[in-house]
Amino acid sequence: MMLNLRSDGCLYQQDVVDYLVKEHNEQHLNENADGNQALSTKVINKFRVDSGGDVVWVRPDKYWRYRVPEDEDGREARG
């Protein structure tokens, strides 16, 4: 995940989910409240450790990107 983030500057959750399904690694996925596949908590927690404080989650578009000066403290971007 970090390699893709470094090369592309952002990482969409759906791209990771699609990759894991294609590679037959569905054990790293969970079903969310909407019935869609999403990354497991274990995978997300590992990514948080690997990415440190330099990466934020953009909730509306469901992707991670590198922090910019306008971002507030925390792991989630505000809009």
How would you summarize what this structure contains?
35% of the residues lie in helices and 22% in strands.
Describe it:
The structure is a single chain. It contains 3 helices and 5 strands, in the order H-E-H-E-E-H-E-E. By secondary structure, it is an alpha+beta fold. The chain has one domain. It has a 3-stranded antiparallel beta sheet. A two-stranded antiparallel sheet has the order 2-3. A hairpin with a 4-residue loop joins strand 4 (55-58) and strand 5.
* Number of helices, counting only DSSP H or I runs of 4 residues or more: 3
Sheet having the most strands: 3 strands, antiparallel
Overall shape: globular
Helix content: 25-40%
Strand arrangement within the widest β-sheet reads 1-5-4
N-to-C CA distance: 22 Å
Q: Output the helix-strand order.
A: HEHEEHEE
Topology overview:
Blueprint: H1 2-8, E1 10-12, H2 13-22, E2 29-31, E3 37-39, H3 41-51, E4 55-58, E5 63-66
Antiparallel strand pairs: 1-5, 2-3, 4-5
Pick out its properties:
two-stranded antiparallel ribbon; single chain; 79 residues; alpha+beta; 5 strands; three-stranded antiparallel β-sheet; 3 helices
